[in-house]
Amino acid sequence: MRIGVYGGSYNPPHTGHSLAAAELIQALELDKLLIVPAGDPPHKSLPAGTPGPEDRLSLCRLAFSGLAGVELCELELRRPGKSYTVDTLETLAAAHPEDSLILIMGTDMFLSFSTWRSPRRIAELAEIAVMHRDLCAGTWKQVEQEARRLEEELGARVRLVENRCIQISSTTVRRMLAFGAPVCLEPEVESRILEKGWYLTGGSLRGLPYPALRELSLSLHDEKRRLHVCGTSETAEALARHWGADPEAARRAGILHDITKALGPKEQLHICEKYAMMLTDFQRRNPKLLHAKTGALLAREVFGEKPEVVEAICWHTTGRAEMSLLEKILYIADYMEPQRDFPGVETLRELVWRDLDAAVFRGLEMSVSHVRENKQVLDPDSLKAWEFYRNLTERSQ
After folding, report:
1. CATH number where 225 lies
2. Omega of the bond prior to 12 within 30 degrees of 0, cis?
3. Is a pLDDT exceeding 80 seen at residue 45?
4. Where residue 140 falls among pLDDT bands split at 50, 70, 90?
5. What is the CB neighbour count within 10 angstroms for residue 309?
6. Average pLDDT, the chain
7. What SS3 state is found at 254?
8. DSSP at 288
9. Residue 82 in contact with residue 42, Cβ under 8 Å?
10. Tens of pLDDT, residues 334-351
11. How many angstroms separate the CA atoms of 142 and 159, rounded?
C-alpha cells in the first residue's frame, strides 16, 4: 500500500486541508491518507485559546468525514511532549513494514526540512511529497535546488506535486473567526466552533480595558508587525498628550489601526460584505488598500470603539481633507513611529512637535511622491488630502 502522512496543527481544520487531501490521494495514487494532528509542534507554539487535543480531533473528524481513503491518526495527540515527525514515521513504519510511506508537506516546511530532528532518518523512512502552487521563480528555484541537495546528500526521494486547492492558513481562519466573519470552514466545523465558543467566538470583545485590548490585538497580528503596532500606539498617545487630544483614544486607535493588515484581498472583501460596507469602484479594484476601512469596521462592530477612534483608523492610511485632531495624530504616528526608517523621517519627527498640520502635509507629500515614483495606484482620498494640506500650509506661511 501507498500511505500518505499529512501532518499539521489543524487549528482549526479548514476546507483548504480537505480539498488538498482529496487532491493528494489522486495525485500521489494513495491507498490511504493519514491525517496526523500535531499534539505539541516543535516549530511553533499553539496560540492561547487553542482547543485541547480531543476537541481538535473532533473538528478533524467533522472536516474529513466525507473523504474516502482518509483516516485520522492520533499518534501525536496521544504522545506526551513535543510532536516529532521522525517518531511518528518510526511507529508507522513498524506497523506497516510492507507499505510505502509518503510524507506530505508544503514548500515552507520543505525549505526548513534540514533543521528538523533526524532529517536523514525521515528520508530513509518515507518519500517526501512537496505541495506547491503558483510559486514565484525565485522560490521555485529554491525548492528545486533543495530537492536536488537532499537527494544527493541524504538519498531522499522528493516529489513535487502541484496543488491547485485553496491557499489559506489556519491562522487566517482563526482571525476571521475572531472578527465574526468565518471563512473556509465546513458547516459542521463552523457550527461546532461557534457552539463551543472556540477561537475568540465565545464572548464579547467590546470595550476591553487597554491592557487586554493590546494583548488581544497583538495576538491577531503577524509577529513582524507587532513592534510597529506598539510603536504607533505609543507615539499616538504621546502626540495626543502634546496636542490636547484624548490619550486613551489615541493609544486604542494605534493598537487597532492595522488589525486586518495580515488578511488577503478576499478576506478584506468578505469583511466588507459581512458588515455591509459600501465600496467605491476604486476600492473594489484595489482590495489590498482596504485594511484601514476593514480595521475601522471591526473597531466599531467587534471591539465597540468610540466613533472618533473608528474614524481615525478609517483614514490612517490615505488621510483625508479636514482631518480631526485624532485622525491627524494617528496618520502621522503611523508614518513616523520608531520602527520607521526612510529618508526624511527624522525631520518629520522633529516637525510634528512644532506644527502638526505641516507634519501631516510633509507625510502626505512623501507618500504621494512615493506612489507616483513607483507607478502605483494613488487613492483619490490621498490626493484630496494632499491638496487640502498643501493649501493650508501655503496660507499659513
Report:
1. 1.10.3210.10
2. yes
3. no
4. confident
5. 26
6. 94
7. helix
8. G
9. yes
10. 999 999 999 999 999 999
11. 14
Decide: helix, strand or coil at residue 302: coil
Q: Cα separation of 328 and 315, whole Å? A: 9
**pLDDT above 90 for 112:** yes
Residue located via cell numbers 487531501:
21
- Between the alpha carbon of residue 264 and those of residues 108, 148, 258, 268, 329, the distances in Å are 18, 33, 13, 6, 27
Per the CB < 8 A criterion, the answer to whether 261 and 317 are in contact is no
Which cell numbers hold the place of 19?
A: 480539498
SS3 assignment for 63-99:
HHCCCCCEEECCHHHHCCCCCCHHHHHHHHHHHCCCC
pLDDT of residue 166: 79
Residue 162 has pLDDT above 90, yes or no: no
Separation CA 389–CA 374 (nearest Å): 23
Decide if 317 is inside a domain.
yes
From residue 299, alpha-carbon distances to 66, 263, 286, 342 in Å are 38, 16, 22, 29
131 and 238 inside one domain: no
- State how far the Cα of 362 lies from the Cα of 42, in Å rounded to an integer: 47
Question: Has residue 241 got a pLDDT over 80?
Answer: yes
The residue with greater pLDDT, 47 or 349, is 349
Which residue in 22, 305, 59 sits closest to 164, CA to CA? 22
CATH of the domain at 162: 3.40.50.620
State which residues form the domain around 92. Answer: 2-167
Q: Which of 296, 312, 310, 311 is nearest to 261 (CA)?
A: 296
Residue type at position 88: T
